[in-house]
Amino acid sequence: MQRRSRGINTGLILLLSQIFHVGINNIPPVTLATLALNIWFFLNPQKPLYSSCLSVEKCYQQKDWQRLLLSPLHHADDWHLYFNMASMLWKGINLERRLGSRWFAYVITAFSVLTGVVYLLLQFAVAEFMDEPD
């Protein structure tokens, strides 16, 4: 699975428009860093998209645990990035102001990894239940 290229990344342009509409000075630091990190990984992926997707076979059996860290940061295309980060922008502003930057950073980090772990556990459980090792 490779990222679709359309020439102009309309989703990325809309995301940058949203960020500048809100104002960079009005976005708390952890939310801004999370947005920047996700945009950077979108523009400069560390691995091909297929090599960062979660699967029990790749993570557990082949010990490719790096996927747990990369999968929350990789987006299939510019619209995937836009919808996730536009949501993150609005939720991040409210939650970071409410929780504080340190606690919000902890929540983002913990739940990014835990979401992948739960996904892998569910994938493993369904495979066992269905008697389908693939």
UniProtKB/TrEMBL annotation:
Keywords annotated in UniProt: Membrane, Transmembrane, Transmembrane helix
Pfam families to which the protein is assigned, alphabetical: Rhomboid
Compartments, as annotated in UniProt: Membrane
InterPro entries in alphabetical order: Peptidase_S54_rhomboid_dom, Rhomboid-like_sf
Membrane topology, as annotated: Multi-pass membrane protein
Predominant cellular place of this UniProt entry's protein: membrane
GO-annotated cellular components: endoplasmic reticulum; membrane
GO MF, any single term: serine-type endopeptidase activity
Protein transport as UniProt keyword: no
Transmembrane residue ranges: 103-122
Source species, domain of life: Eukaryota
Domain Peptidase S54 rhomboid, first and last residues per copy: 63-124
PANTHER family: RHOMBOID-RELATED PROTEIN, RHOMBOID-RELATED PROTEIN 4
Protein name: Rhomboid domain containing 1
Natural source organism: Homo sapiens (Human)
Name of the gene this protein is made from: RHBDD1
